[in-house]
Amino acid sequence: EAAKPAMEGVAEVEGISCKTVYDFIKEEISNWSVEKASEVTGVSPEDIRELARIYEFCKRFGEMWNNERK
Q: Is 35 within 8 Å of 43 (Cβ atoms)?
């Protein structure tokens, strides 16, 4: 069971429903606008958007690379 831990979803642990940290973080992040993140971090909205584009590109590239390795 621990060999393939769940990244998303809800699991029962000793009779208690628990969501993954990943799901919790996704929910929390969805409440933040780029402008709010900029105010809190001091990073410009433009840089945040560019970093998001880079992250998405790298994520897609990584998925493509992993699929080719299978």
A: no
Q: How far apart are CA 9 and CA 22, in angstroms?
A: 9
Cα separation, 1 vs 8, in Å, equals 15
Give the pLDDT confidence of 1-38 residue by residue, as tens digits. 556 667 788 878 889 988 888 899 989 999 999 999 99
- Residue 37 CA neighbour count, 13 Å, CB half: 16
Amino acid (one-letter) located at 10: V
Task: Evaluate if pTM is beyond 0.90.
Answer: no
Cα dihedral 30, 31, 37, 40, rounded to 10, equals -140
